């Protein structure tokens, strides 16, 4: 009988320890999610995307021979510039309104759609579009990683 009581006591102690550890782990995960879901992360990333789009627009508009952003001969300049302007408007709206109200999943979906649209437009409208799209993808991925690291660190 004493052994049974001892076994029950040990089991209860182990369960209490496991519950406390589980609570600690889930609390840490929740805290990390809150930090990573910081609206400033997405707003700043939207701003970085806007800067890239503005650089592309400027390169197309100026018709500078040195610009890497040259339209293909068969590309419609006005339509391409309008699409780029539309993307900027979406990002500005997103930056000011959407980033503060939506959860991270819907925010990331919205940003992915804009990035996908930009990638397609660059690939089909610019000379060396595939290479330029790859370079911009890498730059934006690096920018996102830096922002994510910045907002993942606790600000005390």
Task: Please describe what this structure looks like.
The protein has 156 residues and is mainly alpha-helical. The protein has two domains: 36 residues; 115 residues, no CATH class. The chain is built from five helices and no strands. The radius of gyration is 25 Å and the shape is rod-shaped.
Fraction of residues in β-strands: under 5%
Helicity, as a percent range: over 70%
User: What form results from the Cα inertia axes?
Assistant: rod-shaped
What is the H/E order? HHHHH
Q: How does the major sheet shape up? A: none
Global structural class: mainly alpha
Q: What are the segments in which pLDDT stays under 50 over at least 5 consecutive residues? A: none
């Amino acid at each position: 009988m004493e052994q049974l009581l001892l076994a029950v006591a040990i089991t209860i102690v182990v369960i209490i320890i496991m519950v406390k550890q589980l609570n600690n782990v889930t609390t840490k995960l929740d805290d990390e999610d809150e930090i990573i879901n910081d609206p400033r992360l997405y707003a700043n990333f939207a701003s970085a995307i806007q800067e890239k789009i503005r650089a592309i627009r400027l390169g197309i508009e100026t018709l500078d021979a040195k610009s890497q952003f040259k339209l293909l001969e068969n590309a419609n300049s006005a339509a391409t510039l309008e699409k780029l302007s539309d993307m900027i408007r979406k990002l500005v709206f997103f930056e000011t309104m959407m980033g503060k109200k939506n959860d991270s999943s819907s925010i990331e979906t919205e940003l992915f759609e804009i990035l996908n649209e930009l990638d397609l437009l660059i690939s089909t409208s610019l000379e060396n579009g595939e290479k330029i799209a790859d370079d911009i993808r890498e730059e934006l991925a690096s920018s996102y990683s830096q922002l994510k690291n910045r907002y993942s660190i606790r600000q005390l």
